[in-house]
Design brief:
By secondary structure, this protein is an alpha+beta fold. It has a domain at about 360-599: 2-Layer Sandwich (Alpha-Beta Plaits), CATH 3.30.70.1230. Helices cover about 50% and strands about 20% of the residues. Strands 6, 7, 8, 9, 10, 13, 14, 15, 16 and 17 form a 10-stranded mixed beta sheet that branches. Strands 1, 2, 3, 4 and 5 form a 5-stranded mixed beta sheet that branches. Helix 4 (about 75-105) crosses helix 7. The longest helix is centred in the N-terminal third of the chain and has 28 residues, at about 75-105.
């Protein structure tokens, strides 16, 4: 799932995590906390987020008051205004969180909102630090105050939503709500003060932040001993360690195993670390030989020290993953030219304020319909439902890998067809081409299956490009059905089904001005009736293809044909005008183009 892929960090650039999905799930739960779809910009995922502009002003006043209070340098006037500033910011935040909870349909809007809030706080503290160096040290003492403040705001918003509409909040959140992302941001102690894991100054952090009950000296001593022990076992080929690495660190490149950075990621793995600490004869004796650790055990129980160390390791790794996620959040200020341009291009903008909304839930996407021919007659004939279902499995199971290969999403199965979308999760100029590639391979696969006697179905396929609205319907306490709706979805369905020939005529190839090459034909007759036993695309889809592909225009049998050789599927693709189709309920005729292929 694309949402889970957002959590994966490249092991080559990570500091403490190895970047795999099992590691992320171990730290944040399975399934991972959901996130809404991002856009792709510059080869990376981006969440464009905008808060109400007043929120940053209230936040800065709130932070300045807290810092002056902690430093003990707050003049009387500031002390008097701090409660008012805190109340104003709290009220604005409460309204914001209520609106997000009410608008979130298990999409992950609340998770994105908290990623953006904590990023805003960390950036604001960095601005204040640039003006006053004393903030660098004082900010680490803010965590207890900020954690309790934001946790109260989060809980208050939940209570208000539930009170205003009893049961509504639980229904929208679902029985499998995973709060681990928000809990980690609010509790772990890093998200408010740091923008990335590389910014963490462990000496200052552990000296001022009492969340982990561990001094920097003891932490680094345990850390160094465990890393050295890991390096030794790697050199000696420790079978227990290598077995755990093979099972739990498959994404860590082998060339990193013998590097200091690689040893750190291996040691801090949630399966390797207990293995090391469980060796009382080797690792345990080395830890107790340390004067710093031995002195600490005279003040506290050894189990408490180990527990605090493990807690800190988990917090550090969670923050590295969440900081990676948060790096994909782009905060925007008041509405301006750049945002207007963004919206006009069909890119998403997540707005969090008194009324949470997602601008451009309607996106430009390619909708692909595959519609089998002969299904209705077959289902009414002398064939059992079980055998008919098995034949559909045989056909559809062959199609799905083609859809997945080119980045499509199966929106729904329609009994005798499939609806897939390209571009509902991120904008890509090649989405229409990827839909066309899928259509060609599916049609070719069906023809092969007919020749092998595995099916006698034929198929009409249609691709239409246009604006569609992404809707999320909550089926029950656990399941959400995401689908696209709108006029362009209906048009794509009309193009795929067209007018269906009787079953006995299905066995005859299409005639008329259809395409040449492999694949049955597409015909639009004199009345504007579309017969589709091949692949048909709309003019809107053709325009998108022409903008991206170097088509060659040729004349074939008195017809103008556009050709393009596609290296991805090793096919020569031909597009030709089939006619203006007319559909009931659609005022104007609809220019359609037939697709054929060779290779």
């Amino acid at each position: 799932m694309w949402s889970a892929s957002l959590y994966l960090k490249d092991p080559a650039t990570s500091r403490f995590v190895a970047g795999g999905l099992p590691e992320a799930e171990l730290l944040l739960g399975s399934p991972l906390p959901p996130l809404p779809p991002p856009d792709r910009e510059g080869g990376r995922s981006i969440f464009a987020v905008r808060f109400h502009p007043q929120l940053r002003t209230l936040l800065l006043r709130f932070l300045q008051g807290l810092l002056l209070q902690i430093e003990g340098t707050a003049p009387p006037g500031v002390k008097d205004t701090l409660p008012r500033d805190q109340a104003e910011y709290g009220e604005a935040l409460d309204r914001l969180l209520q609106s997000v909870r009410a608008a979130d349909r298990r999409l992950g809007l609340l998770n994105l909102c908290w990623l953006a809030i904590t990023r805003d706080v960390a950036e604001s503290l960095r601005e204040l630090e640039a003006k006053s160096p004393s903030v660098k040290k004082a900010k680490y003492s803010l965590h207890p105050l900020m954690s309790s403040f934001y946790k109260r705001a989060n809980q208050s918003a939940r209570r208000v939503v539930d009170r205003n509409s009893p049961g509504r909040g639980a229904f929208l959140a679902g029985a499998r709500e995973n709060t681990a992302l928000v809990d980690a941001l609010l509790d772990d102690g890093f998200a408010f003060t740091e923008l990335s894991i590389s910014d963490v100054d462990f000496n200052l952090f552990l000296a001022a932040n009492k969340r982990y009950r561990l001094s920097a000296d003891v932490f680094f001593e345990m850390y160094s001993i465990l890393v050295r022990e890991t390096e030794r076992r790697l050199r000696e080929g420790d079978r227990g360690l290598l077995a755990r690495m093979a099972r739990h660190l498959p994404d860590l490149p082998k060339e990193q195993w013998q590097t200091p950075a690689g040893a750190v990621k291996i040691m801090m793995n949630s399966h390797v670390l207990p293995y090391l600490l469980g060796d009382a004869w080797t690792t345990g004796s080395k830890l107790m030989a340390s004067a710093r650790i031995k002195a600490e055990t005279e003040r506290r129980k050894p189990a408490e020290i180990v527990d605090a160390f493990l807690d800190l390791v988990s917090g550090v790794k969670r923050f590295e993953i969440l900081a990676h996620l948060r790096d994909q959040v782009a905060l925007h200020g008041a509405f301006g030219g750049s945002l207007e341009d963004r919206v006009s291009k069909g890119l998403r903008l997540y707005e969090f304020g008194d009324s949470a909304s997602v601008l451009n839930s309607a996106v430009s996407a390619s909708v692909l319909f595959l519609d089998l021919r002969g299904f209705t007659q077959t289902s009414e004939g002398h064939i059992s439902e079980r055998d008919l279902t098995r034949e559909l499995y045989t056909v559809f199971d062959e199609f799905i890998p083609h859809v997945r290969r080119f980045g499509g999403t199966v929106d729904k199965f329609l009994g005798d067809g499939i609806m897939a979308t390209y571009g509902t999760d991120h904008l890509d100029p090649l989405n229409p081409l990827n839909a066309l590639r899928t259509a060609i391979l599916c049609q070719e696969t069906l023809q092969r299956m007919r020749e092998e006697g595995k099916t006698y179905f034929k198929m009409g396929i249609a691709i239409h490009y246009g604006r569609v609205y992404i809707a999320r319907f909550i089926a029950d306490e656990e399941d959400v059905q995401t689908t696209v709706i709108g006029r362009n979805v209906n048009l794509a369905g009309r193009l795929s089904s067209g007018a269906k020939r009787p079953l006995d005529e299905d066995e005859e190839p299409g005639t008329g001005p259809g395409p040449t090459g492999r694949g049955p034909g597409v015909v639009v007759d004199a009345t504007g009736t579309l017969f589709n036993e091949g692949i048909v695309i709309s003019r809107e889809t053709l325009v998108q293809l022409e903008a991206q592909l170097p088509f060659v225009h040729v004349e074939t049998d008195g017809r103008s044909v556009m050709e393009y050789f596609d290296d991805q599927i090793s096919k020569r693709i031909q597009l030709s005008y089939a006619g203006d189709a007319k559909f009931k309920g659609v005022r104007s005729s609809f220019p359609v183009y037939a697709v054929s292929f060779e290779g």
